[in-house]
Design goal:
Strand content: under 5%
Radius of gyration: 22 Å
Oligomer: single chain
CATH class of the largest domain: Mainly Alpha
Number of strands: 0
Distance between the termini: 42 Å
Number of domains: 3
Low-confidence stretches: 1-12
Mean pLDDT: 78
Helix content: over 70%
Structural class: mainly alpha
Order of helices and strands: HHHHHHHHHHHHHHHHH
Shape: globular
CATH superfamily of the largest domain: MFS general substrate transporter like domains
Number of helices: 17
CATH topology of the largest domain: Growth Hormone, Chain: A
């Protein structure tokens, strides 16, 4: 009887710690979307060009993606709780710097600092969530972790629009400060007895530099595709150089005494299936979040704020489905929710590809809600599949790699969806709108095809695993 009471108390304590972690994490995820709607105001007040303004977003997302593996290694060496706490402190200070920015250069520098602190907190928080709950509650805990990101995405555009309209864009950053102060207070009290298990080793700085340069060129190449197209020679040289650098990084990890990334984790087919599904989730989520507002504002003639509210069903359904999928995983495992997520995602993106200017708003919102359900299932199932199959001593670096693939997928998704939707630049006079609608339809349909390809890859991985 006493052991049951202790187990119950431990579970309750672990879940309360998950919620504490989630509070600070919410602000970090929020900054990946809340700034978008405030960009027009920033452009006017700081007198900057649209291309420079785009880097206010890209400076944050690229920095996070590039540094996630490195920060996951730091969490192993110096402690998950310590790195998460310092990440929150840095994020609070960099948010203040963003709010006080007198010019674009200052703001871009502060956004890079935000990206560094976000990269510190994300893998450390994922590892903390995994380590504070018992094994039978991992699915539910990871569902909460995923739901936090979904909630931030759901409220980001509308919250950013409301704050900017009432208080000005600087308050998008000012409001981070009291929330993080609260998160730090709860972290100190809720994790007073928590002990980190540090891993032996040292940092491989050469590998860090090679990996960072390779990822930068890869992500920057995808981002430039939206401006220069796929046939630009400079863009392809970036891709080629990034492949060489990343190939060199992989080779170096196999001969280093203390590698930055243990390549053995990729021989774990469960983990590999999880990160591939996570990559797809990033592609489809960010692709949808960029293409849907364009469809609503350019084709349907909605205001930016109204368009941001119209795509909210995608994020809300992603938010609502995450905890339920987590509980399903605890009972039935990750495979069924993962396959269900693929099926719903393929179906919903196929339906979105049938929309045109005559389609009803209600139909658009329903399809978006189903797309959010599918992506939400992929997110939680891939997260649990990956983290539950990795030993405790590799969890931080594996978590950083997992999160890096999500951010990498986001950058790729923006490039793919924009380039497909805007590919019809040579439309005949008088048929520009028809070609534009077809471009948006093709982007949605391409997402469905891509999901089908990833699903087939999942089956191939499973068959190889079964043969072993």
């Amino acid at each position: 009887m006493q052991s049951e009471i202790k187990a119950s108390a431990s579970t309750a304590s672990g879940m309360s710690q998950v919620f504490i972690i989630s509070l600070g994490l919410f602000v970090i995820f929020l900054d990946s979307t809340v700034v978008n709607i405030a960009l027009p105001s920033m452009i006017d007040q700081l007198a900057i060009k649209l291309r420079t303004a785009a880097w206010i977003i890209n400076a944050y997302t690229m920095t996070v993606a590039i540094l996630l593996i490195f920060m996951g290694k730091l969490a192993d060496l110096y402690g998950k709780k310590r790195l998460y706490a310092w990440g929150l402190v840095m994020f609070m200070l960099s948010s203040l710097l963003c709010a006080l920015a007198p010019n674009a250069a200052w703001l871009l520098t502060a956004r890079v600092l935000q990206g560094i602190s976000g990269a510190m907190a994300i893998p450390a928080s994922m590892s903390l969530v995994r380590s504070v709950v018992p094994k039978e509650k991992v699915g539910a805990a990871m569902g909460i972790w995923s739901a936090v990101g979904a909630l931030a995405i759901a409220v980001g555009p509308s919250l950013g629009g409301g704050i900017t309209e009432v208080f000005g864009w600087r308050w998008v950053f000012y409001l981070n400060i009291p929330v993080i102060l609260c998160a730090l207070f709860l972290l100190k009290s809720g994790f007073a007895s928590y002990q980190d298990h540090l891993q032996p080793g040292k940092l491989d700085w050469l590998s860090i530099i090679i990996l960072s340069m390779g990822l930068f060129l890869l992500i920057n190449g995808f981002l430039q595709v939206t401006e220069t197209g796929w046939l630009n020679g400079y863009t392809w040289w970036q891709f080629i150089l990034s492949v060489l650098l990343l190939g060199g990084f992989i080779w170096a990890q196999g001969i280093r005494a203390h590698p930055l990334l243990e390549l053995a984790i990729f021989s774990n087919r469960q983990y590999l299936a999880g990160i591939l599904s996570n990559l797809l989730g990033g592609i489809l989520l960010m692709g949808s979040m960029i293409i849907s507002p364009l469809f609503l504002t350019r084709m349907m003639q909605f205001s930016t704020l109204k368009a941001s509210l119209m795509i909210t069903p995608l994020s809300v359904s992603l938010l609502l489905i995450a905890p339920f999928i987590g509980k399903m995983i605890d009972k039935r495992g990750s495979l069924i929710p993962l396959l269900l997520g693929y099926t719903i995602t393929i179906s919903s993106f196929s339906l979105l590809g049938t929309l045109d200017l005559e389609s009803s708003i209600a139909l658009f919102m329903i399809y978006m809600a189903f797309a959010g359900m599918g992506i939400g299932m992929l997110a939680v199932a891939s997260l649990t599949l990956s983290t539950s199959s990795i030993p405790e001593d590799q969890l931080s670096i594996a978590s950083g790699t997992f999160a890096m693939f999500r951010n990498l997928g986001g950058a790729i998704g923006v490039a793919i969806f924009i380039s497909i939707s805007m590919g019809s630049t040579s439309a005949p006079v008088g048929k520009e709108q028809i070609y534009a609608v077809e471009g948006f339809q093709n982007a949605y349909l391409s997402g469905a095809v891509l999901a089908a390809v990833f699903m087939c890859s999942l089956f191939l991985l499973r068959r190889k695993n079964d043969r072993k």
